[in-house]
Automatic annotation (TrEMBL):
<dbReference type="Pfam" id="PF00563">
    <property type="entry name" value="EAL"/>
</dbReference>
<dbReference type="InterPro" id="IPR052155">
    <property type="entry name" value="Biofilm_reg_signaling"/>
</dbReference>
<dbReference type="InterPro" id="IPR043128">
    <property type="entry name" value="Rev_trsase/Diguanyl_cyclase"/>
</dbReference>
<dbReference type="InterPro" id="IPR035919">
    <property type="entry name" value="EAL_sf"/>
</dbReference>
<dbReference type="Pfam" id="PF00672">
    <property type="entry name" value="HAMP"/>
</dbReference>
<keyword id="KW-0175">Coiled coil</keyword>
<dbReference type="InterPro" id="IPR001633">
    <property type="entry name" value="EAL_dom"/>
</dbReference>
<dbReference type="InterPro" id="IPR035965">
    <property type="entry name" value="PAS-like_dom_sf"/>
</dbReference>
<keyword id="KW-0812">Transmembrane</keyword>
<keyword id="KW-1133">Transmembrane helix</keyword>
<feature type="domain" description="GGDEF">
    <location>
        <begin position="378"/>
        <end position="508"/>
    </location>
</feature>
<feature type="domain" description="PAS">
    <location>
        <begin position="226"/>
        <end position="287"/>
    </location>
</feature>
<feature type="domain" description="EAL">
    <location>
        <begin position="517"/>
        <end position="776"/>
    </location>
</feature>
<feature type="transmembrane region" description="Helical">
    <location>
        <begin position="12"/>
        <end position="31"/>
    </location>
</feature>
<feature type="domain" description="HAMP">
    <location>
        <begin position="169"/>
        <end position="221"/>
    </location>
</feature>
<dbReference type="InterPro" id="IPR000014">
    <property type="entry name" value="PAS"/>
</dbReference>
<dbReference type="Pfam" id="PF13426">
    <property type="entry name" value="PAS_9"/>
</dbReference>
């Protein structure tokens, strides 16, 4: 109670008395003492004057007895307690004292000279000294002053006591009751009231406190009711609810949470939530604090029985700072949903037939593999694998057989893959393999040998496959995933062009070829848009008389800056890109238009026009399109020769066979071009309505070869083809005749027609027409 209000009040009152009343009282006593001392001094001064005169004569006479009597009379006066009389000559020294032995105070001395008036004048005979006790503060008080002081002290004490009693009764007592009510409320939890009634400030304080207690009691009842309702809702809600404090400790969980996880509330409250998730998900959960406006995270939660479930946690935070953070979170079991998403993701990135990654999955893995290779200080080889002749298997043996072959291929391939390798089916018969290694090129070449060994065993009876493989190495050949895949693809196509069935490592020359091919593609597209394509014509002559029998239409691209471009590369790129159909339609329209103009020249009315068709041009609309063009220009159908190569016939495609038959019924003639090369077979003459056989120019050059064996075999082959063709009522034309000797030999062997630089070079239609119309032209008419 040292710091009680009452003690403080007592201290304040005492301090006020010490500061204000005590100094006044001390001043009063000091002044009273000064006044009494002055009165004593004045009395002693008068007494000394009188006794100094009385002692003058006895001291002159050295009458010691008289001096003693006078001294005794002086010492008996009032406050004087000692008298000393001394002669100037030292012969007389009288001292009288009434000082008790126990006196230890200070004495005040007052002296006066004794003067005697002689005939010679005043003489100083000696001195008289009197002593009186020094007065204290209370020594000089008179009786009435003492009474006044007593009354003053009594009044002060009465006021002081009254203030203490009033303070205790009117202040301390209600405060103690208020304190007791507050302590009882704090300790017992119930709202206690103050039993105090008055109309002063303490009464108003008590009433305000009681009103506050009543209001708080009402609010507490409402809060408890709301808390009970919230707790019931928290526990009865069919959702896994839980709350965390600022240190991620669990402060509350719902009944449904306990039911779903298997834990008990007593065991789980106070535990760190991160301890209940798997180590793989723990960092993700801990880092959620970085998220603003709450948190949404999916983690793997470990239940009491050890099973793991994927849960989606959505957290709403409450609290103003980091030290009073409180959260309410809902935890949803998304195990099935997560599994479904994983299945959908696997299906989205997996090839359904082989189980390998598809293109989308491979591209995602490729980025990760490059990052892993960088981290491990390794290289990464990308093998782009394309099966050879797989389309032939699908077309001739069915897609089921092709799918079975692909599945078998993948099963064989998996036996050669390391755990760090990755394989994917990019589509159709295209595969990609990633091989991380310190020396990726050596590893890639070894893998290519293993892949080649896979194809040694047939995949089914009479089902033999091979593969063209392109190799690109990261980071030597490419800096990005897309570039690595692109360059391995380029290397594969380079191997395709070089003869298939093998592996090719990427080199920068392929980039030059790719740029050249891209430039050709751009020129083809620009040529179609800006009409750069032209149909040149090369006459076909009768070897007996050399009269013109017809013309072969040849495609040319006349670039405005580069001039005429080589047709072979343009045709190859156009066929690869599928633009050969548009190019062929342009040349066909243009060539038939030229034939219509030539037909107006005398003797050219029966000449024919041979048009080369790519396999891609044989669509069902071709007969109708050709009929429309020849009808528009007034050309008889039999004057149009459709030239096809063995590539069109070798697959025995029913649709191509139907289109060729339709053209034949329309009246067009069919010519088999480049006969004698590749897989040429005389069975084509029996299975297809062929009218004309064109001997390839390689045989024409070989009939006069310097090697007797080559020359003899070539002539025997041409003679055999000619004889059999004539037996089947087919006309035979020799291509590439450049010398008179070649022409004479072919004529002697029985060939009907020929074309080549010996007779005419391919020309622009305008130049050819001008040549045909020249008066001096000795061009013979077709026989």
């Amino acid at each position: 109670m040292n710091n009680s209000v009452e003690n403080r009040f007592f201290g304040i009152v005492c301090g006020a008395l010490l500061v204000f009343v005590a100094p006044l009282f001390v001043l009063f006593l000091f002044l009273s003492s000064e006044r009494a001392d002055k009165e004593i001094r004045d009395h002693i001064s008068v007494l000394l004057v009188a006794n100094a005169q009385a002692l003058a004569k006895p001291l002159w006479d050295l009458d010691e007895e008289s001096v003693t009597q006078i001294s005794a009379t002086v010492v008996s006066q009032g406050a004087i307690v000692k008298v000393e009389v001394r002669d100037q000559s030292g012969q007389l020294d009288v001292s009288q004292s009434t000082i008790p032995r126990s006196f230890d105070g200070d004495l005040v001395q007052v002296s006066r000279a004794i003067i005697y008036n002689t005939v010679d004048g005043p003489k100083n005979l000696g001195s008289i000294s009197v002593y009186y006790p020094a007065l204290g503060l209370f020594s000089g008080l008179k009786q009435e002053e003492v009474v006044f002081i007593s009354i003053f002290i009594f009044a002060v004490l009465t006021v002081f006591g009254t203030a203490l009693i009033g303070n205790r009764f009117f202040v301390i007592q209600p405060l103690m009751r208020l304190t007791a009510a507050i302590e009882a409320t704090r300790q017992l939890g119930s709202r206690h009231h103050v039993d105090w009634q008055s109309n002063d400030e303490m009464g108003r304080l008590a009433r305000s406190f009681n009103e506050m207690q009543t209001k708080l009691e009402s609010e507490e009842k409402e809060l408890k009711l709301a808390h009970r309702r919230a707790t019931d809702i928290y526990n009865l809600t069919p959702a896994m609810l839980f709350s965390l404090d600022e240190e991620d400790r669990i402060t509350a969980v719902s009944d449904y949470w306990l039911l779903a996880t298997g834990y008990s509330r007593a065991d789980i409250i106070g535990r760190n939530f991160a301890d209940l998730v798997t180590s793989s998900s723990r960092d993700k959960f801990v880092k959620r604090r970085q998220a603003e406006n709450g948190m949404t995270v999916t983690v793997k939660f470990v239940c009491l029985d050890g099973r793991t479930m994927d849960v989606l946690i959505m957290e709403a935070e409450a609290g103003a700072g980091a030290h009073d953070r409180l959260s309410l979170s809902v935890m949803t079991d998304v195990t099935e949903l997560k599994a479904s998403e994983d299945r959908n993701h696997r299906q989205a990135i997996t090839d359904h037939l082989t189980g390998l990654l598809n293109r989308q999955g491979f591209e995602a893995v490729l980025d990760n593999k490059i990052a892993a290779a960088d981290a491990a200080g390794q290289e990464l080889a990308c093998l782009f694998v394309d099966l050879d002749r797989f389309k032939w298997i699908n077309d001739n043996m069915g897609h089921a057989a092709g799918d079975a072959a692909l599945i078998e291929l993948v099963e064989r391939l998996k036996t050669h893959l390391a755990p760090s390798d990755e394989a994917a089916r990019l589509g159709g018969d295209e595969f990609a393999i990633l091989l991380p290694a310190k020396d990726a090129e050596r590893r890639a070449r070894a893998m290519c040998e293993q892949i080649a060994s896979i194809f040694e065993t047939p995949f089914a009876p009479d089902m033999h496959l091979s593969a063209s493989i392109g190799i690109a190495i990261y980071p030597h050949h490419a800096a990005t995933a897309a570039e690595l895949l692109q360059k391995s693809d380029m290397a594969m196509y380079a191997k395709k062009r070089d003869g298939k069935n093998g592996a090719q490592l990427f080199d920068n020359a392929m980039l030059d070829r790719a740029r050249s091919r891209a430039e050709i593609e751009a020129n083809i597209e620009a040529g179609l848009v800006d009409n750069w394509f032209e149909a040149f014509l090369q006459p076909i002559v009768n070897l007996n008389g050399r009269g013109i029998a017809g013309f072969e239409a040849l495609m040319r691209l006349n670039h405005p800056q580069k001039g005429l471009m080589p047709p072979a590369e343009i045709i190859g790129v156009a066929e690869e890109t599928g633009k050969i159909v548009r190019v062929g339609n342009v040349i066909m329209e243009m060539a038939i238009s030229h034939l219509a103009k030539i037909s107006r020249i005398s003797g050219m009315q029966d000449t024919y026009l041979a048009i080369n068709f790519s396999p891609l041009q044989f669509d069902p609309a071709l007969p109708a399109r050709l009929a429309a063009i020849v009808g528009r220009h007034g050309i008889r159908p039999e004057r149009i020769v459709v030239e096809i190569t063995e590539a069109v016939l070798m697959h025995d495609n029913p649709q191509i066979r139907m289109i060729v038959a339709e053209l034949r019924r329309f009246g067009c003639r069919i010519a088999l071009d480049d006969f004698g090369t590749g897989y040429s077979s005389l069975s084509y003459l029996n299975r297809f309505p062929v009218d004309i056989i064109k001997i390839d120019q390689s045989f024409t050059r070989a009939i006069n070869d310097g090697d007797d064996d080559v020359r003899q075999k070539s002539r025997m082959l041409i003679e055999s083809i000619t004889t059999l063709s004539h037996k089947m009522y087919c006309t035979v034309i020799a291509e590439g005749i450049e010398t008179e000797e070649e022409c004479r030999t072919l004529h002697q062997m029985g060939l009907d027609y020929g074309q080549g630089y010996l007779f005419h070079r391919p020309q622009h239609a305008a130049a050819l027409i001008e040549e045909l119309m020249a008066p001096q032209s000795a061009v013979a008419r077709a026989s």
